[in-house]
Design brief:
The protein is α/β, with parallel strands linked by helices and 423 residues long. It contains 13 helices and 15 strands. The longest helix is centred in the C-terminal third of the chain and has 23 residues. Bound molecules: pyridoxal-5'-phosphate.
């Protein structure tokens, strides 16, 4: 059977061991092709119950609830770590935002290497990471080196490999920080090889897994990763603004000190003593009171990921993105659209990136005319994802067929630019 036959996708769904998960998510419009799970996942039905249950719990327990709420960042971190990160217990916290956790771990890494003054990242990195690094460099008089792997005019990219990184490394490097999957191009980095390479020159790596967690296997323990952060609302399906997570390997927990010394990191927290003495375990990386509502959303969503198994999830992401690339070759390449993501499944995650000068208008028209939800990234990228639990293969196939018709007919040119600040 050919990939361009609709049967092809229906057959994949029929044999998909994860197919039944789709019915565990809220889908209000069954005709919609939701291909933006890499930006915001769908809501699990179990989350509605979990949040309501928490409201009842809060009402009944009021302040006494803190006796068990107080440490929920840790078991929720353990759950997330086991389900999606390949992380043993006691190394993950669910807390704050990716941006805050990123700042915390980057400065902890920098201060663990006194005297060294160089930070390395890449131009393709997510804006918040680059802006925070710029601020850190200014605040502490450090030298921020940005590997120029992206031409902003055309959004092409270069994967960061050990060969690309090697010329930048020397004994002044304190921190290297990269995305595990580049947000725009979808390129995946070899975390094991790069962590080892940077360790060999005495530096530390902080990985940002936001576009990877819940889509691919990360095996942070087995890959020897020291530090990693990520969000929970993309492939993690935990909801807009749900708390993020941080991973600190047991190997480096004692040696690192985060800059914000909050009371949740205090060893004898409720003695409320005059001097800060950091807890020597993962709690030493927590700032403050956990967001319980958000944490319950993370628990229900990552319980589903655990039940599905991250290997099965990663497999579906690989097969789904392969189908996208095959459909792209058959239908979209002839229309002048370019592919900006690797054809090797080991070098990508759950989304692919297509490039066209009219990308903004195509994305708007996909929403307004075709009932397909893509994701536009300036200046010319169309990102399309398969979020393995809530997305079916046929949903992806139909989305691509509608995109082919929209672009081939030129109908997309009839829509006017939208007025939202968000793209
Ligand atoms: C989505 C994403 C973030 C988001 O940061 P917030 O603090 O949650 O707003 C950060 N970094 C990367 C790489 C992302 O993909």
């Amino acid at each position: 059977m050919n990939v361009t036959d609709r049967e092809f996708a229906l057959e994949l769904d029929k044999n998909d061991p994860l197919a039944h998960f789709k019915s565990q998510f809220v889908v209000t419009d069954p005709e919609m092709c939701y291909l933006d799970g890499n930006s915001l996942g769908r809501i699990p039905k179990a989350t509605i119950t979990a949040v309501n249950d928490f409201m009842v719990e809060w009402g009944a327990e009021v302040v006494t609830g803190w006796s068990h709420w107080v440490d929920e960042a840790q078991p929720t971190g353990d759950l997330l770590g086991e389900a999606a990160l390949g992380a043993g217990p006691g190394q993950v916290l669910v807390c704050d935002t990716t941006s805050v956790n990123f700042y915390q771990l980057c400065l902890a890494a920098i201060h663990a290497r006194p005297g060294r003054k160089t930070i390395i990242t890449d131009a393709a990195n997510f804006p918040t990471d680059r802006y925070i690094l710029d601020g850190i460099a200014k605040q502490f008089g450090l030298n921020l080196v940005i590997i120029d792997n992206e031409d902003p005019a055309i959004a092409t990219h270069e994967r960061i490999t050990t060969q690309v990184l090697a010329p930048y490394l020397n004994d002044d490097v304190t921190l290297v920080t990269l995305e595990i999957i580049q947000y725009r191009s979808g390129a995946r980095t070899d975390i094991k090889a790069i962590t080892e390479q940077v360790r060999a020159i005495g530096g530390l790596v902080v990985w940002d897994a936001s576009h990877a967690v819940g889509a691919i296997e990360l095996n942070l323990d087995a890959n020897g990763v020291d530090l990693c952060v990520g969000c929970t609302y993309k492939y993690g399906n935990s909801g807009p603004g749900s708390p993020a997570w941080l991973y600190v390997s047991k190997r480096v927990q004692k040696e690192l000190q985060v800059p914000i010394q909050g009371w949740f990191a205090q060893d004898a927290q409720f003695e409320m003593g005059p001097v800060f003495e950091r807890a020597q375990n993962i709690r030493g990386f927590q700032i403050a009171s956990p967001s319980l509502v958000g944490i319950r959303c993370v628990q229900s969503a990552f319980s589903m990921i655990k039940a599905a198994g991250i290997d099965a999830i990663a497999h579906k992401a690989a097969v789904g993105t392969q189908m996208m690339i095959d459909l792209y070759d058959a239908w979209l390449a002839p229309l002048g659209i370019e592919l900006n993501t690797s054809r090797d499944a080991k070098e990508r995650g759950g989304h692919i990136s297509l490039v066209h000068p009219d990308a903004a208008q195509i994305c708007l028209a996909l929403r307004e005319i075709s009932n397909v939800i893509p994701d536009y990234r300036t200046p010319n990228s169309i990102r399309l994802a398969i979020s393995p639990l809530p997305t079916s293969y046929i949903e992806v196939w139909d989305g691509f067929a509608r995109m082919r018709d929209l672009v081939a007919s030129g109908q997309y040119k009839t829509v006017k630019e939208g007025g939202s600040r968000v793209t």
